[in-house]
Write a structure and sequence with these properties.
It contains seven helices and eleven strands. By secondary structure, it is α/β, with parallel strands linked by helices. Strand 2 and strand 3 form a beta hairpin.
């Protein structure tokens, strides 16, 4: 197996101040602790990172980040802080702000909503990234039902199969499909700087169980995430 990349290990958490569906989501209390602080705590406990850096445009987010033990050595420009900005340019900007010498050969981008993140999954990812032929390692989870049997529903409630050719195909005979777990992207620094797409032929996956993954985009999502967090850490108790 190739030798691990040398140099410091840096985590970058992109945590802007704006959030339309859940206002101030990144610093809203999650079971009594700001969401961002929960994720910082997971990264601290992993022992995998020399630096945990939060990229934000917001003073209150920065205050929470520093209080949780992360660094906020720069402010993200407003042009990189709207809800249309992709992740790769934000991480590339963080690398430019910190300097190549300071970040080493790898940078892990972790979303502030990754409160269900498991340290073992991070360790699995970094081992895969030891291969110089790999640009990124991402966590994925299986869809709960075969996407090849998906339906479309029109405004009048009529439904039909999107791929009717799969009507009589047994579910077990369809190719398994996965979705982005939305927790982290661990990538080679040169891939981030070159702004190479995260999903490509040089990307490898860490497969997670579907119950260990939860997007937090709606109030319902928030409730489910808190429930799963309790189960994961406290056996269901607060």
């Amino acid at each position: 197996m190739p030798e691990p990349h040398a140099g410091p290990s840096v985590a970058v958490i992109p945590a802007r101040g704006g959030s339309k569906r859940i206002p101030r989501k990144n610093i809203r209390p999650f079971l009594g602790v700001p969401l961002l602080a929960r994720t910082v705590a997971v990264l601290q406990s992993s022992g995998l990172f020399d630096r945990i850096v939060v990229s934000t445009d917001d003073d209150e987010v920065a205050e929470v980040a520093v209080g949780a033990g992360a660094e906020v050595p720069f402010r993200r420009a407003g042009s990189l802080a709207d809800d249309q900005t992709p992740t790769v340019p934000v991480v590339a900007d963080a690398i430019a702000q910190l300097g190549m010498r300071e970040v080493g050969a790898q940078v892990c981008c972790i979303y502030p909503t990754a409160v269900l993140l498991q340290i073992n999954d991070l360790m699995r990812a970094v081992r895969l990234l030891e291969d110089p032929a790999v640009d990124y390692v991402v966590p994925v989870a299986p869809f709960s039902a075969p996407i090849q049997r998906a339906l479309r529903v029109d405004d009048d409630g009529r439904c039909e199969m999107i791929w009717p050719e799969n009507l009589t195909v047994r579910s077990q005979d369809l190719e398994p499909a996965f979705h982005d777990a939305g927790q982290f992207y661990w990538g080679a620094t040169d891939a981030w700087v070159a702004k190479r797409p995260v999903f490509g032929p040089r990307t490898r996956a860490v497969v997670l169980p579907s119950g260990a993954v939860q997007d937090i985009d709606t109030e319902e999502d928030w409730v489910v995430a808190e429930h799963r967090f309790r189960l994961l850490h406290h056996g269901g108790e607060t």
